[in-house]
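User: I'm new to structure prediction. If I give you an amino acid sequence, what do you actually give back? Let's try with this one:
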Amino acid sequence: MDRIRGKRPVALWVKLAASGIVVAIGQTIVHQDSEIGGVLGLLALALLAALVVARPVVRRHGPSRIALAAAAFYALVLIDDPNPLALLLFMTAVSLATLLPQRRFGHALLWLPRLAWHALTAVPRPWRDLAWSGAARTRRGGAGGIRMAATMLVVPVLGGAVFLTLFANANPVIGTAFAHVALPHLGTVVWRTLFAAIVLIATWATLRPRLPVTVIGDRMGGGRGRADIGIASLILSLATFNAIFAVQNVLDIAFLWSGAALPAGVTLAEYAHRGAYALIVTALLAALFVLVALRPGGAGFASRPVRVVVAAWIGQNLLLVASSALRLFDYIDAYSMTTLRLASLLWMALVATGLVLILWRLLRARSATWLINANALAAALVLSGASAIDLGATAAAWNARVAIERGRAGPRLDLCYLGQLGSSGLTALATLERHARSASLRDRIAYLRANTQGDMRTIQTDWRSWTGRNARRLASVAGQQAVAKRIPGWRDCDGVIHPAPARSAAAAPPAPTARLTKDAER
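Assistant: Good question. You get back a string of structure tokens that encode the predicted 3D arrangement of the chain. For your 522 residues, that looks like this:
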């Protein structure tokens, strides 16, 4: 599989050794009793190094080198701040690096089923290769490989275990010696075995990739056998769509962009919230219609009037997306920023980018492959940024800045949300604590900040849970060590104090007896 340009393939034992090293590193740096921190990035770098050493073809293949560089970037992100998105992008980049030498890239959609097949077949791949190795050795007249060795060990191991058990019951010396042997907890054995199996499967699938022989046709944008929509029907449809979209856009211009008064019974927050997400779905459906009805080479694409009307409709869709973003900004202005709302803004920007690319394809007669790859690149850039930037910390910083600048005139400060963000909310809490004017508010924020800071400091003391991002956050608030005042009672998620209920005279504890007093004096 690794033979290219006359190079000899890498021996199987090299890949076995590389996989064993990666598994050993994973067993050393990851522990079930510790949170997984930056060590996950170290494990990712180890897998990447194993791929480069055991599959030299990826070093000589240009597209694979690009995928390797992307995987190295995501591994560094995992060291700084491990998160599921960065891990998913890392595994995608590593899979692309190992699979690209077997197929030309084509366009991005072709790789969705290939990557899915690569992931689905990863689990049985080590056992299939083990069976293949044993069968090959048997055909060559060898000892039967690893399976033969395992067969030879069954009787000695099981028989020795039986005899040791009998001797331990019959001989107190042997029984005492076995009693002092500390065996690992069953749950620990199961956890470490499962983790080792996951690392082995991921590593082996990377070093021994297999793609199906079937070819996925690239017929998008010009394939035969598709029925064209008639020019008359297409123009009528587009005219209808433009008229409907014009009504929606005129209303948005009147109420959102110009600030006109809304009808009685409709608030700006309600108007903004109800349409922010639904209109994005409308824009996506419009983009899908353009892709299906106006592919290069079709009758509609060749008609200049149709192209003009489509360009106008795409322009209306862009205005629709801008209005959706404005609706969401108005809602944020009234109810504060959250991670989901920030991610929604990024999604809207990605939809707008896709519409611009569709328009560019229409005007410049670009191919479907160009459009797919351009959109895939835009999505990859947005996802890469989202994996490297803490959206929760960004939302918290936004809320803190608005609260400091606008005070009571701004949206209500949701301290519960900032506390629930964990380490992502630490810097924002520390900033709010420094700027709080009210002593009670400062005490509430100090309580949340101290709890978060203490939890983070405890986690950072374990090198397996350490992350670079949390280290920088703790360093930035190192001077704020004061803890909120302690009083009887309990605090809510926003730091509000709930005093302990006063005890009535009937419920007062009995006076201590002389014996209790004497014991207390002791």
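You can read the tokens as a compact description of the fold. Here is one thing that stands out. Residues 213-227, 511-522 have pLDDT under 50 and may be disordered.
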